[in-house]
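Recall the central idea of this unit: under ordinary conditions, the amino acid sequence of a chain determines the structure it adopts. In this exercise we apply that idea directly, starting from the sequence alone.
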Amino acid sequence: MHRVLKLSVAGLLVAAPACYHATVDTGLAPSSVVVEKSWASGWIGGLVPPSTVETASQCPHGAAKVETKHSFLNMLVGALTGGIYSPMSIKVTCAQAGRAFLSPTGPTIDVGANATPEQIRDAVSRAANLSLRTGEPVYIEY
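Accordingly, the structure predicted from this sequence is:
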């Protein structure tokens, strides 16, 4: 029994620093504007996600990076509540004006600035088919 307790404590010490962390990088150049929500309230182990972080007014050019994580304190609170309340930290780095870098070697489909919804759907369909055939990304320019 004493050995099981030691193994449990050792397992907890190894697992505790391994906090959940996910990053979404959009490819846009980051700016210095960062929107953070340290205690975004999730419920029932994440089945009910936190409310949306409103960034439209602070990030007029979109988001360059979105990071979500469960810090040690977030996970501790979640464990103490039995997973009913499961907070997380959300950090959004706004994008600079401009656009993402396009690969010079990747195929591109240009639909024009005033494309109709039908032309856009057609371009997406053509891009998907081309990407499926070649196995590489296809860029669509508006």
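The chain has a mean pLDDT of 80.
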